[in-house]
Amino acid sequence: MKVRIAASLLGLVLCSPTSAQVTQRVSVAPGGGSPVRTLEESSLRVRKGIVGGIVGPVVEREMRIGYDRNRRTFCAVLQDGAGLDASGRGDLATYQIADLTRAEFIALMDGVLARNLGALPTEIPIEVEDIYRLNTGLEMHYGNLDWENRAPGGCLHSRSRVQPSAADREQFEILIAWITDSVGRLGLRHTSEAWAYSAAPGTKLESLPVMRAALKRAGEEDFAANLDLNRAFTSGPLEGSIATVRIPWRTNQPIICWPPPGKILKACSVRVDTRTNSIAGVEVNRPDSWDVDEQRRRTFLDSHPRLEFPTSELIRAGWIRPGMSRELVLAAWGEPKEEDERGWRYERDGRGVYINFKDGVLWSLDVAPTR
Question: Which of 15, 143, 304, 357 has a CA-to-CA distance to 294 between 20 and 30 Å?
Answer without folding.
Answer: 357
